[in-house]
Write a structure and sequence with these properties.
Strand order of the largest sheet: 1-2-3-7-4-8-9-12-13
Largest sheet: 9 strands, mixed
Distance between the termini: 49 Å
Strand content: 15-25%
Number of helices: 15
Shape: globular
Radius of gyration: 22 Å
Structural class: alpha/beta
Helix content: 25-40%
Order of helices and strands: HHEEEEHEEEHEHEHHHHHEEHHHEHEH
Length: about 500
Amino acid sequence: MSAKKTVFARSSLLALAALLPSAPLLAQDDSLPMPPVFLKAMEPMVERAAASDKVVLTRHSGTFGGRKLSYDAIVTESPVANAKGQTAAVVVTYAYVARGSAGARRPVLFFFNGGPGASSSPLHMNAFGPRRIVGKGDTARLENNPHSLLDVADLVFIDPPGTGASMPVKGADASSLFSVSGDAAAVADVVQRWRQANGRTDAPFALVGESYGTARALAMLDAEGKAKLPLPDGVALFSLSLGDNDGPVISDVSLLPTLAAVAWYHQAVDRKGKSVEQHFAEARAFAENDYARALIAGASLLEGERAKVAARMSELIGLPAAGLEKDGLQLDRQAFMLGLLSAKGLRTGQLDGRATRATAESNMHPPFDDPSMTLGAETGHLIADYIGKDLGYALPSAYRTLNLGINFKWDWGRGEVYRTVRFAPFLSKALAEKPGMKLMTVGGYYDITTPVAAGQFALDHAGIGPDRRTSKTYAAGHSVFEDEGELARFAADMRDWAGKLGQ
């Protein structure tokens, strides 16, 4: 990578479904090189010899949110069944429970990342767990995490089937677990069994997902409803990936404000003294009014009006008006990322639009040409050491931070693909059954992969308006917690939200 790449290029591959919505990665140009870690992420899963239900408990202490407390770390193995009701895999959870706390009414937050095929390690080891990986490469190390939410809630990090240490059982058919419905049902079952086993059925609880994990959280609401399981008291959705944004007009309308924020960051537009928040809001107001009307009009739009809209787009997102007009005012992520800084010989990232790399060096197989992407392999040994030494859990096989094998064969249901599935209606139905459920949404201004406005549109379209949710946007990319400047704000907002669960 070029030395010109910004310091923000640390995002793990958490949103592969959003990056590659319609075709498998291997179907693209096979002449381009693959990073070695890609091949590792494609390795077959190491099956467990047999199902197991081991529980390992260790004792610790730390300071979180300015409060010193003692806590238990509980690693739990939970066998889960396939669609035929046969035990097919073992799901591993990593829980942190405060000792001497308020007892059964203390909230419990259940975390998972996305992919599909990503373990919970980013949220666990980079965001809200009691220990956090800081630094990169040879300087990467584990430190106590003052941003952990353990002062206000107990935390349970879940590695879905096929990720982390949650592997299929030898001889069993685990294929149904690698689907929207099968994965959701298994994880929902694990959540309820953990609550029962740890005496927390009277405690408020919440589901917390990132990227595809937001889709999983809402699919879990559907699974809980079908299985007559308790619905959560809250749902927190980071970098919303809920579908319902692939149609004409809305895909461009929801993307334009994010591209405007990226152009603002790189000073590719005249900022006119405005903050990124102000520039984003101005771009969104334009996108949802004049721009939307122009897109709807299409060929019937008067030539002079088209030129006027293109000129305004250029002022907001930094691309030449002539090119925008030629393209029918429609947006293309790749064209934007390659074109915004082309005069400097640079391209931007997609997971984080602030990251850059020399265009001439962007010769990796897509989507690995994204300068804001890594696969998290550089700290994999720290995660394994932490689980084995600090938590006392003997990993049955190498810890899988990412499993692209199950990602490529993921079953979206009824022959659908990622962008055609609608997840927000699951939440709408759950809110009708449990109106007091608290909703938190989080996004990054510079996340081109899952634009802030796209996720909010999916909720609005399902009848879940701004009055039904707490929405926060940060000056960050796809993984808000990877931005050191925003993590403290993010943690404070989550701490405030979690403290109100069950009220």
